Amino acid sequence: MTTSGEAIGGLVVGLDIGGTKTSGVLLGPDDAVLGAVRLPTVRGADGVVATAAAAVRALVHDAATAPDALVGVGIGVPG
Predict the structure, then answer these.
(1) What is the pLDDT, as a whole number, of residue 48?
(2) What does the H/E/C string look like for 14-72?
(3) Apex CA 51: angle with CA 61 and CA 40, to 5°?
(4) 56, 13 in Cβ contact below 8 A?
(5) Phi and psi (nearest 5°) for 62?
(6) How many whole angstroms separate alpha carbon 3 and alpha carbon 19?
(7) What's the confidence (pLDDT) of residue 1?
(8) Contact (Cβ atoms closer than 8 angstroms) between residue 16 and residue 39
(9) Interior angle at CA 24, CA 19 and CA 25, nearest 5
(10) What is the pLDDT of residues 14-68, one digit of tens each?
(11) Predicted pLDDT at 8
(12) pLDDT recorded at residue 56
């Protein structure tokens, strides 16, 4: 299975959602790291979703790109 930005022709986000923090990275088409973010994870289902969305928004904003430039988001969660 190929998951790189280069193989799918666009920007991708990877999120690592943990019990206390959420880390995210934005990768370009050549797999270069274009941005990274670390946020405290808000507890509860709604909080986790809000934290993930905030991380993606921050990565897109900091890279001065649009959300529609993303071709995928990968998420890792414990359990």
Answers:
(1) 97
(2) EEEECCCEEEEEEECCCCCEEEEEEEECCCCHHHHHHHHHHHHHHHHHHCCCCHHHEEE
(3) 100
(4) yes
(5) -65, -25
(6) 25
(7) 44
(8) no
(9) 160
(10) 999 999 999 999 999 999 999 999 999 999 999 999 999 999 999 999 999 999 9
(11) 58
(12) 97
Confidence at 79, pLDDT banded by 50, 70, 90: confident
Please report the pLDDT score of residue 3 as a whole number. 52
Query: Residue type for 5, please?
Result: G
Show the tokens assigned to 22.
């959420």
Query: From the CB of residue 32, how many other CB atoms can be counted at a distance below 10 Å?
Result: 10
Strands 21-27 and 70-76: unpaired
State phi, psi for 58 to the nearest 5 degrees: -65, -45
Provide the token pair at 11.
Answer: 């920007």
Strands of 21-27's sheet in order across: 33-40, 21-27, 11-17, 70-76
